[in-house]
Design goal:
single chain, 3 domains, 36% helix, disordered N terminus
């Protein structure tokens, strides 16, 4: 205990605890990212980091929520509770890293503030399947931030224990939000049942431990008591109270801790003034009732902490009649001295080991259990990382050569979307971030130019239901799935080339079922660049001018990618389709071929949700 605010004393136990946390986090993140990069070489580093930090934070939150009921069921877990705040702050930091990477990746570099984009990109609150799960995660992160920011005893003192405790009970709200965040988000993009099984197992574990602990507490509150005489209630036999420990009884809705020590019995409130810890689960050390949670102490005869500490709890009058302890259920004012009741028998019961956080040495039995638990937890974390990362859905061979700048020559075409037509191929053009290349291209439309950029390509195509690798890829596939991110200011007029725009070939009316994606992410900048998890990013990209495309999956496992234009063959107005991006849609329109590129011309009114 300390009578002033000062830097935390990093005793041996805290240093060991924090070292284990740091090592465990590093091992988990390293395992997840390392195995993920080895197993899925086409996965982007950002995607692996987002998933690694997110799963680590969610796993740690389960541990945090399990520590409390475990300690109520077995006091040998108290060393974990003593430093639980450190684990909670670590959980927030991991969640912050997850959220930070996700906001930058999905909402950054666009035409709106990232936080504004996060809160407004998806407002389908009336649909469970399309519910905006990212907002749920953001709200959970805000709660975890409030808890981490107020974790120091300075806030406990100034907010008052009831308010502080109520604030930190919001962890259960955060947990519920995160369960919904994962269920409505990541699980919908995973084909393997393993992530869902882990979520269900974690939820069942947390609920089961809390229900068992609550049942034990219910037994205390509904324990049958003895007779009532002269305002006193028969509480329990003296012989059932271990020496220097307590029995907890509930009288008139208030829990009372009855302590036996040095041939005497005293009763005081079971609620510690620090964090409402259960004093009755503590023991008497150095003549003081010591709270099992954080070691706050009170004199059993007065309920007051020894000077200079100001904490006080209520005391209760006791008497011993025929070997039973009788308690007056009317509490005295906190800190009121009450004479202890003397025990005629000299019988002494041995008590089990007891952990106090500020004592340098942990009792051997408790230490052994904690070492086994911590070691098992670290091994379990590694196994969890391996299982989760190896059961991710596959990543398509899509690439963004961001570290390699190349030079191309050709003719610039402005409609329906900026395109560079070379002697061999057609390349869609985009700008940095979530922006189209319209402004860069407008002044050079129809001219022969030279430009620099970075290649974006999806190297696996399909034809006739057969998957082809890069070496066997035909011209049509390469043209359909290739793009250039233009280096700003690199476009210059060049000598005329033999490249020429190909006439449009009308393939007739079609109706297709698919998903509207932003072509830049889908072709390689994000991997995976499709599905609900990517929906907000796709909406932000398309609103910034990235060409929209329709991904159509065929029955044989192949897929087609059509650029989406309006009925006149010009660029599709983003506002007309943003509310249908990343969702299953049915589109009726006219399919045309320009060179080897396929363009679907459709009126926005003919784009309808498939569900």
């Amino acid at each position: 205990m300390s009578h002033q605010y000062q830097a935390i004393g990093w005793n041996r136990q805290k240093r060991l605890y924090d070292t284990v946390i740091a090592v465990g986090v590093v091992v988990y993140i390293g395992t997840f990212v390392g195995v993920g990069a080895w197993s899925f070489p086409n996965a982007t580093a950002e995607t692996l980091l987002i998933r690694a930090f997110g799963t680590a934070a969610f796993l740690l939150l389960h541990v945090v929520l399990c520590i409390g009921p475990l300690c109520r069921l077995d006091s040998r877990f108290l060393p974990l509770l003593y430093n639980r705040r450190h684990l909670g702050v670590t959980t927030f930091l991991l969640g912050l890293a997850h959220g930070g990477f996700a906001i930058v990746q999905f909402h950054g570099f666009g035409n709106a503030d990232p936080l504004v984009s996060l809160l407004t990109s998806n407002q389908r609150f009336g649909s469970l399947a399309e519910f905006p799960f990212q907002q749920l995660g953001f709200l959970a992160l805000v709660i975890l931030f409030l808890m981490a920011a107020t974790s120091h005893d300075f806030w406990l003192k100034n907010l008052a224990p009831p308010i502080w405790k109520a604030l930190h009970m919001l962890v259960y709200v955060a947990y519920g939000l995160l369960v919904a965040h994962v269920t409505l988000g990541a699980l919908q993009s995973q084909k393997s049942p393993v992530p869902a099984a882990f979520l269900i197992a974690g939820l069942v574990t947390v609920l089961s431990l809390h229900m068992v602990a609550a049942w034990r507490e219910w037994r205390v509150d509904h324990r049958a008591l003895g007779a009532v005489s002269d305002g006193f209630v028969e509480a329990c036999p003296v012989g059932t109270i271990p020496e220097k420990c307590a029995t907890v009884v509930s009288l008139r809705g208030e829990r009372i801790a009855i302590f036996r020590y040095d041939g005497k019995v005293s009763a005081l409130s079971n609620v510690c003034r620090h964090q409402n810890g259960p004093l009755g689960e503590g023991r008497i050390i150095d003549g003081c009732v010591t709270c099992p949670w954080h070691g706050f102490q009170y004199l059993p005869e007065t309920g007051a902490s020894p000077p200079p500490f100001p904490e006080k709890v209520s005391t209760f009058a006791t008497r011993i009649v025929n070997g039973s302890v009788w308690v007056n259920p009317v509490p005295n004012d906190p800190g009121t001295p009450v004479e202890s009741s003397r025990i005629s028998s000299a019988e002494v019961h041995s008590s089990k080991e007891f952990f106090v956080g500020y004592v340098p040495k942990t009792p051997p039995g408790i230490g052994r259990l904690v070492r086994w638990v911590v070691g098992g937890s670290l091994a379990g974390a590694c196994l969890t990382a391996l299982t989760l990362v190896s059961n991710q859905s596959g990543f398509p061979p899509a690439f963004f050569e961001f570290s390699r700048t190349q030079t191309w020559k050709g003719v610039l075409v402005e409609q329906p979307y900026p395109t560079l037509v070379t002697e061999q191929s057609r390349y869609l053009l985009v700008s940095l971030g979530k922006h189209g290349a319209d402004e860069q291209v407008h002044a050079f439309a129809g001219k022969s130019v030279r430009l620099q950029g970075k290649l974006i390509h999806r190297d696996v195509g399909t034809k006739g239901g057969r998957v082809m690798n890069e070496r066997t890829m035909n011209e049509r596939t390469m043209n359909e799935r290739t793009m250039i991110e233009v280096v700003p200011g690199s476009i210059i007029v060049d000598n005329p080339t033999n490249a020429a725009e190909t006439p449009e070939v009308d393939l007739g009316p079609v109706t297709v079922a698919g998903e509207i994606v932003d072509s830049k992410c889908f072709l390689g900048v994000m991997n995976p660049g499709e599905g609900k998890v990517h929906r907000d990013c796709a909406a932000r990209c398309i609103s910034g001018g990235i060409p929209p495309a329709v991904l159509v999956r065929n029955s044989g496992g192949s897929s087609d990618l059509y650029l989406l234009a309006d009925a006149a063959g010009r660029s599709m107005p983003p506002a007309a389709i943003l509310d249908r991006v990343g969702e299953p849609v049915n589109i009726s329109g006219r399919l045309v071929r320009v060179g080897e590129s396929l363009i679907l011309k459709a009126d926005p009114a003919n784009i309808v949700r498939a569900r």
